[in-house]
Amino acid sequence: MPTRSASSIWEGGLKGGKGSYKGESGALSGSYSFNTRFGETPGSNPEELIGAAHSACFSMALAAGLEKAGTPATKVETKAAVTVELQGGGFSITGIKLTTRASVPGISKEEFAKVAEATKTGCPVSKALSAVKIELDAQLG
Predict the structure, then answer these.
(1) 3-class DSSP state of 45
(2) Cα Rg of the chain, angstroms
(3) CB atoms within 10 A of CB 140
(4) pLDDT tens, 116-138?
(5) Whether 38 contacts 32, CB under 8 Å
(6) How far apart are CA 124 and CA 28, in angstroms?
(7) What's this model's pTM, rounded to 2 decimal places?
(8) Which terminus of the chain has fewer CB atoms gathered within 10 Å of its CB, N or C?
(9) With contact defined as beta carbons under 8 Å apart, do 75 and 116 qualify?
(10) How far apart are CA 77 and CA 97, in angstroms?
(11) 107 pLDDT higher than 90
(12) How far apart are CA 28 and CA 7, in angstroms?
């Protein structure tokens, strides 16, 4: 199995500095700062990247689980909201909320909920982030 990598550079102090990141494929790159991460300045941040990774992994894993159950999805759309908060003198990621909507012909709400819940704990990124509370709102639609 492959190993994927990304890199980042930070220049300057915490509040006045700036950073950039890029993925090895070249398909992903961006910049970030203290204010894009903890303030209201538009721009990227590590939590957004975690959210992108988690939502992509969850959607793919849910599609695989539904296919394995004999009810392949025609579409899975997932949003991951990653919360970062100041706790005990430092910042921590305190939770992730996955909101997914899927079009799955021929599946009951109960079976869909079962597969979605298994995916919440079973997708590789969920496993990697298991130290954080992960909530799931999964619905057909």
Answers:
(1) coil
(2) 17
(3) 16
(4) 999 999 999 999 999 999 999 99
(5) no
(6) 20
(7) 0.94
(8) N
(9) no
(10) 14
(11) yes
(12) 11
Total residue length of the chain? 141
Residue pair 117/107 in contact (Cβ under 8 Å)? The answer is no
| For residue 41, pLDDT beyond 90 | yes
Task: Tell me the longest C-alpha to C-alpha distance in the chain.
Answer: 55
The DSSP secondary-structure symbol of 40 reads S
Strands (E), the chain: 6-11, 18-23, 29-32, 75-87, 90-103, 133-140
CB atoms within 10 A of CB 67: 13
Tell me how crowded residue 44 is: count the other CB atoms within 10 A of its CB. Answer: 19
Q: Find the Cα–Cα–Cα–Cα dihedral 87, 89, 91, 96, rounded to 10°.
A: -10
Quote the tokens at residue 104: 């799955």
